[in-house]
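User: quick one, sequence for these tokens?
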């Protein structure tokens, strides 16, 4: 039975852009809904809402690409202090099962990392209800190219850019990094004069393989990938970062909850990287829910793990 228009609007509200383009939006995953769920098992947690650090500047809702009349936005946070060598950049990718979430969920971490000497870009990307796989990949690579094109505005070192993602965003961060230089994943969005290659990956509880003994991906993955594994086996394989690990894969940091299904493919990826002499680092935080990065007492350790890793691989500290 078809969904009545009024019911559809109640379930999936629309977001209107400045160009009056209406975008279907699934609001099922929010910081507050995740908090309410996690607090039942972890009553001591608090939502991480740190103040904007001193010395960090911000530009909100910049348009990094326009597809037809659909703009794609980002919030950029960057150090005010001058730096002749430039600051490394980080593109932050929110999570929500590839169909929910928004860039504001990346802002607290983006702001804190920017204060440690990075240009951080919290991006939006098109989700399942608007455009399924591989469109999100094209969007993110366009964001990376845009950031390089804006190097002068943000004192960016264009030779040092990382992807950083949580949950579905972590899956995408890893896929972006493992497909460096593969034209099939580039798309034709935005500024095509710059590279979309990244020099580091930070994957926070994002799976590395959709079809894997540890993976329990089903409905959300099937919706994003255009069908179940039985219907679209090649897509499930090609959309997995583990499939593409090669000599051009950059160093990777994996920060994980204590929920094993969000580690799917991680150990296999590390073994592949080890065989290619590519650096990787793992931190599994005990007794944690899946969206642990949103809450105290885990928000600050995630920032520290991230900065220490990126300082090591991008700044040589």
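Assistant:
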């Amino acid at each position: 039975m078809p969904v009545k228009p009024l019911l559809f609007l109640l379930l999936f509200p629309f977001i209107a852009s400045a160009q009056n383009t209406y975008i279907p939006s699934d609001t099922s995953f929010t910081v507050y809904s995740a908090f309410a769920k996690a607090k039942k098992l972890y009553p001591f947690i608090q939502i991480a809402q740190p103040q904007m650090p001193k010395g960090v500047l911000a530009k909100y809702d910049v348009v990094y690409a326009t597809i037809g009349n659909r703009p794609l936005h980002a919030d950029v946070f960057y150090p005010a202090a001058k730096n002749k060598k430039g600051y490394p950049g980080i593109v932050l990718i929110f999570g929500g099962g590839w169909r929910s979430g928004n860039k504001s969920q990346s802002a607290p971490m983006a702001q804190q990392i920017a204060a440690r000497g990075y240009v951080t870009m919290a991006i939006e990307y098109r989700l399942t209800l608007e455009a399924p796989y591989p469109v999100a990949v094209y969007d993110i690579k366009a964001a990376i190219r845009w950031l390089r094109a804006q190097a002068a505005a943000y004192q960016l070192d264009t030779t040092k850019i990382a992807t950083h993602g949580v949950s579905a965003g972590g899956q995408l961060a890893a896929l972006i990094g493992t497909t460096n230089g593969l034209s099939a994943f580039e798309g034709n969005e935005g500024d095509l004069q710059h590279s979309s290659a990244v020099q580091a990956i930070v994957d926070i509880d994002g799976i590395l393989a959709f079809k894997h003994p540890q993976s329990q991906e089903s409905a959300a993955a099937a919706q994003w990938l255009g069908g179940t594994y039985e219907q679209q086996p090649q897509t499930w394989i090609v959309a997995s970062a583990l499939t593409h690990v090669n000599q051009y894969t950059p160093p990777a940091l994996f920060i994980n909850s204590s929920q094993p299904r969000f580690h799917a493919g991680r150990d296999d990826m590390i073994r592949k990287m080890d065989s290619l002499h590519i650096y990787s680092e793992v931190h599994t935080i005990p007794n944690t829910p899946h969206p642990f990065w949103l809450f105290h007492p885990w928000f600050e350790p995630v920032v520290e793990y991230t900065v220490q890793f990126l300082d090591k691989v991008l700044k040589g500290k």
